[in-house]
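hey m, so remember when u said the tokens were messed up on ur end? i reran from scratch. heres the input so u can diff it against urs
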Amino acid sequence: MENQLYPLKFKPILKDKIWGGTRIKSLLGIDFAPLPNCGEAWVLSGVEGNQTGIVNGYLSGNELNELVEIYMGDLVGDAVYERFGNEFPILVKFIDAADYLSIQVHPDDELAAKRNIGYGKSEMWYIMDADPGSTLISGFSRKIEKEAYIEHLNNKTLRDVLNEEKVERGDVFYMPAGRVHALGPGIFLAEIQQTSDTTYRIYDWDRVDSEGKSRELHIEEALDAIDFNVYDDYKAKYEAKQNGSVNLVTSPFFTTNLIKLDKALGKDYSELDSFVIYICVSGSVTLVHPGSTEPQVSLVQGEAVLIPATIDRIDIIPSSASEILEVYID
């Protein structure tokens, strides 16, 4: 039992952003001093140079990819390890948008490989909190050719052809690579994405930092990445149910379910060849894994826990009505 894998918790990495606010502290209780504000808390990351470290049990102090290299399929699942090697394939963040994020787009795997920048970046958002009237940008509102897009960009009228969505708590948006998007002010969310930190910034609202400098734009790089098509639905549809898993997003890169519970729930992962991530978005729970070196692990709002692939069963015991996101690669 000495070297048995167990549910792993991590120390978050905090990111100062020009558009960030104060809800990482007020909602999650994470102190981000001395940063002036905080836009992102990376709570589970294998991104090179930004790896989260373990904070519980005998593996405390190790970085995530170190464990992948040591435990391989036992940690992530044999099929996942064969596909991704020693880099953990998912990045989990909490994002606090007090102002507009830049209008941006991410490359897909094919374009990222061509440019030798690792993997592409498809992501999803689970809205945890939103001010009344908050909106975000997702894709285009009408079919547009590349030439017309460039004209709108040059004329600073790009927003006229972008699709805006009203946002409420519990909304889910999947942002596949290639979809132009931007978060609006007043939105706090959990983000699940491919392990990549590549963002092509298209327009940044003409803002400057405290030194009067604007952020770099990537207009040319973005052109080959953008999906100019229009889609019927930009918001995921689901019906939550109590004390069970409901699918939110299924993609080649991750599957995410929502678990709402007010009583103990047992989860059987014996048929799943993957790690599982739990992300607490409301309330708090205790994870029970009998016979482990860490038989009980707490999970509160704003935390993520990694369940190794060798663990077949987890009992989730809520302290009160709670909500967690369940993420794996199928």
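this time it looks ok to me. The first helix runs from residue 23 to 26. if urs says something different then somethings off w ur setup not the seq
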